[in-house]
Amino acid sequence: MRDDTEDPNYLMANERMNLMNMAKLSIKGLIESALNLGRTLDSDYAPLQQFFVVMEHCLKHGLKAKKTFLGQNKSFWGPLELVEKLVPEAAEITASVKDLPGLKTPVGRGRAWLRLALMQKKLSEYMKALINKKELLSEFYEPNALMMEEEGAIIAGLLVGLNVIDANFCMKGEDLDSQVGVIDFSMYLKDGNSSKGSEGDGQITAILDQKNYVEELNRHLNATVNNLQAKVDALEKSNTKLTEELAVANNRIITLQEEMERVKEESSYILESNRKGPKQDRTAEGQALSEARKHLKEETQLRLDVEKELEIQISMRQEMELAMKMLEKDVCEKQDALVSLRQQLDDLRALKHELAFKLQSSDLGVKQKSELNSRLEEKTNQMAATIKQLEQRLRQAERGRQSAELDNRLFKQDFGDKINSLQLEVEELTRQRNQLELELKQEKERRLHNRSTPEKSQKPEAKDGKYKIQEENDKIKKSLEENHRLLSHPTDEQDQPLLSEKPQICQLCQDDSLSKNVCKNCRGTFCNACSTNELPLPSSIKPERVCNPCHKQLMKQYSTSPS
């Protein structure tokens, strides 16, 4: 059973795929490098040269060969000439190419046409118009050629991206006829150190495609070299045969010249004998002379024919020598291309080994990462269990807080009325105290006013008023202290009284005035000036009186707390 790799259709499809991949690589690399360069491209730019080489290979794929005396000739200039019939704007390019003086071959004209179309930024438009006319292309291409299949349309679509490139070429001084169209794969072989994931896989597939294309091109070049060697052998055989025929013709010419000299001698001898002999002998000799002349004419005509044939053979030999030289030059170019391709193939193999090693190392890294992921999953499960336990504790604490709030609310409902009544009593006592202080001040003023009266008559009255006022002040002070103690600790029956019967001293300013306040945070005793602030404490919802140091400390705590 015949292998699929030997099927011509399979080989052509493989060549089309490889050429399409190479076109993608060259177009992408050209656009990226041109944008990074940021200037107008010229003919010496290496990625641009490689792009034209790839396009030339794409246009040559599946071309029908035209037989000539020098062998088969494949040129893509014929299909490109059709573009001016499909797109009138291309007529200017075709006329310019035909007018260039340095172009002598159809291949050179085709290369110049591609460069001018790229300068006009209409290469994609021209290629699309040409590919859409399959009936015209069938005259030049095989049915399974790249320009006749879907790959040609894909390449034409990719060429649209080249419209962002500005190029400028000088055609007059450039030798486009003798350029060797060999693809340099080293431009597309990139190191994959910085690539990860899908980018690395894409580079590996691209390198494998390049390797397949190189192998296919190498196989094709080997077949071409074998065909050329067979042609050289056939030409050498025909050359030896022609040299033998030429030697035979030379020998024949020499014999004819000898016979001609011999006939001339015989004719001269006959003429002399006719002059000396009788008339009858003259008539016989005249007949022999006429026969000899006829024979001489025939030999002369035969000699002319042989000379013409010799000239033809000489011209054919010269043409064959010229063809041999061209074939030898072509063989040398193919051999150079084979050497460069073998070097590129070696580079590809080395890169393949390197990528295989990196793939193994990446597999080890993936295993290590999978183990690390499993450990992290175990830790995550443990943390999830811990979080669940904490959530349960939080719910329990929330339930305890709600119960405490409920108890506090019930307590406030129970003791709210008592607190209000005590506050009213305190207000009433404060009002009485203010009234008594006012009366005391009036009494002092009255006493100062009446100093001019005798001291003896006034002393007993003053002493009696003084004693009465002191007693009333003591009573008011005791009642205020008792009310203040009840208001400050309505719920705590075990606490000691905040104000003793004796007057206390302020802990900050050491003031021993009558009015004192108790800080609800530190339980210290302070005067009105040192305890003027009120803040809500954790023990009560309403604002309570606190001392100045506790006020500063609580304000710092409230400002730093997240809630």
Automatic annotation (TrEMBL):
Subcellular location: Endomembrane system
GO biological process terms on file: regulation of axonogenesis
Coiled coil: 218-309
GO MF annotations in UniProt: zinc ion binding
GO CC field: axon; cytoplasm; dendrite; endomembrane system; neuronal cell body
Region ranges (Disordered): 441-470
Residue intervals of the RUN domain: 42-174
Keyword terms, alphabetized: Coiled coil, Membrane, Metal-binding, Phosphoprotein, Zinc, Zinc-finger
Pfam families: RUN
Protein name (database record): RUN and FYVE domain containing 3
Organism: Urocitellus parryii
